[in-house]
């Protein structure tokens, strides 16, 4: 709503709620019910104890102080049975009651039933309403069908009937809907003609009880003993105890001698069969086996059949294990050998066995099963010790007495003591017969000196034994030197005379150990022993001459220097000699003995003018960083590649162009150019230029190139305007009067109207006098001079011509000149602190600065204009050119629209609450200056209580527009 219209509507409401004075002093009960000129224009008082008056052209109803409620029959009765109606001191009181359906709060009411929502307490009475969605719930009898009544919000039928929605009360009905039939244990329920039916029952359940009303569905558990797997299937405990049901059939724990052998259907006949027959012996269907039997029989649930010849019924298993008949072959069973239970003895027999009904067990070592008794005599196992001379290794095997002095048996072998030179060598094992002492040990090459000692054939051409010694003939270079005596084993021709140091070339010829290193050695029948340092084995005499060891001194003999036949060479030298096994020479001029490998027999082999041995052995001219190298017989010289120099030339100068002239601060650009230490904290060289780190405040800015000398850190960065704070960082001369540098910061003085305010530090570039102090509000006239903040909401700070000032924000009531504020004929206008200030024109009739400036009948003073409330013209300034009424602080005197709060008026006609104030059709155009609302006799309702019909006309216009808009919408 626009400000002008808002003001009209506010003033209109103020007129409707005028605080008229009542001469009786009673507070009004209702006011503003209608407009009036006299009390006759108002309707009669609605109550017997109420008075009607016309006050300020409005009908007002007040209590009649002369009325006593006790004199009026039923004057306090409010028509509500749940209130206590009293009259006290001429005033009625109606106090709510609780209990019996009356309440002061919902908690006083009884709990709801299944058809009722939670109660409410309305007009002191408990009120219940039916729950929605339940067909049997109601709020009135009309909500029920047929003859049903509505009791406690529930449709209720007479005895013997059931309420079924649209069908009303049905006699003898089990159900109305399928939901009333218990489908918990069924696969679906229906309600047909008031009776429940079920499609089928879920597993484990049955509809066994069908007596009406059959609403309990598949109520029977089919795992019970009375209805096992089906209705009426009773588990019969004949010959049994502890019957059980798994939901399909019965099961039993049978008494001894009986079995549940017939299990047809639900198996309700108990344990009906005897278990003492050959067909069911000990268990149903467990027949006595006919395997190897002569006659089958059963006793006490065990098969006791008689057997065919050679077999035995030994195990007689108990049910439920099946019978195995005459399961044992008595001719082969080691545990039932010849009879049940006759086991073959384990006496010295690790694996008892039976054959033909006799135990023929294999025996432990050293024992024999010689007796083998027959059944029923118990078996005695391997009873015979086979270490006796009469049973040596086998039953009945005796030891021979041939060439024997004393017979003996050990470990099943005959170990008899022999006579003379004979030996018991073969020891034949059972079952072979013993042969006594069968060998002559004095001549047998296989048993020479003792049994089993054969003459070795190693390197032997013909074996022989004489008096117990092996005297074999040798082959090749081998000799039979040791000839060991029994019992030591013979070693044949054990010595290789071509390699044995103790028998070199012949048995007993040992190699000498004179000057020999370690053990002497033999090769090809010659002594080839290794010598101690400084000696050589050069002669090496042959067998039978004795060996002479290492007879030559190789540490001093120039003809055998370091070894036999090693001769010192006199090339480019004179007077060779042998010193400590190495050749030594006196070299000719220009030559040297550089290669001294081994005994150094190559003389003075090296020319000292070569690049590999320049002026001396091992002086190699290194061409590192050089394109060419040469040797003058004393030292090396080089042609260096770019960026390198031969700066260090000590001795033979073998290090090439060793210096990097691009990064060596001692040789930066040339061998003789060092980086200056002037003002330097740490010297450095890069790309042949000195890049030294400077002391604080100095800079290495020029960096002269070689061959010129380096000048170190030559620049003062604290004062140089060309290098202020850093090399090359010049002070900017923009808008400057004089360029200066102080402590590495550009402190240039500026032209008038400019300031050097930011003063950036290195490495940021300088920006000169960057600030316009003639117009910058935060640096106005000088750096850091900030213009004060605005003094009110209408001002914006500025800086102009180096001075601070303010300009208008351009908002309502704001100005830079009074001409922009607008005014009416009664107003003087001024622009003060950028705000429009109005005052009434003095001496002009109808103009004011306060209500006191207006005639007594005029009120209030609006926009410096006295309003005429004698049904004349009311002037209201609004719109863009007038006073913004939403900002009353912009006025010299605030507009006082305060009225007493008389409560909400009862505006039954018209309904102002229904007006859609947001509808654009209610928006009035901004009025020109001034806007006059004129009525035919109404006046502005102010503090004096004058008529306000003019305002009613304004309100009527607003309401007429609203109703017209609603009619259009309809």
Description:
The structure is a single chain. The relative contact order is 0.05. With about 950 residues, the protein is mainly β. The strands form 37 sheets. It has a two-stranded antiparallel ribbon with strand order 1-2. Strands 3-4 form a two-stranded antiparallel sheet. It contains two helices and 74 strands. The model is unreliable at about 1-25 and about 870-970 (pLDDT under 50). The longest helix is centred in the C-terminal third of the chain and has 21 residues, at about 950-970. Helix 1 packs across helix 2.
Unreliable stretches covering 5 or more consecutive residues: 1-27, 869-970
Order of strands in the sheet with most strands? 1-2
Structural class comes to mainly beta
Portion of residues in helices? Answer: under 10%
Determine the mean pLDDT.
81
Gap between N and C termini: 23 Å
Using only C-alpha atoms, the radius of gyration works out to 72 Å
β-sheet strand percentage? 15-25%
The total count of helices amounts to 2
Oligomer description:
single chain
Jot down its keywords.
flat, two-stranded antiparallel sheet, disordered C terminus, 2 helices, disordered N terminus, mainly beta, 970 residues
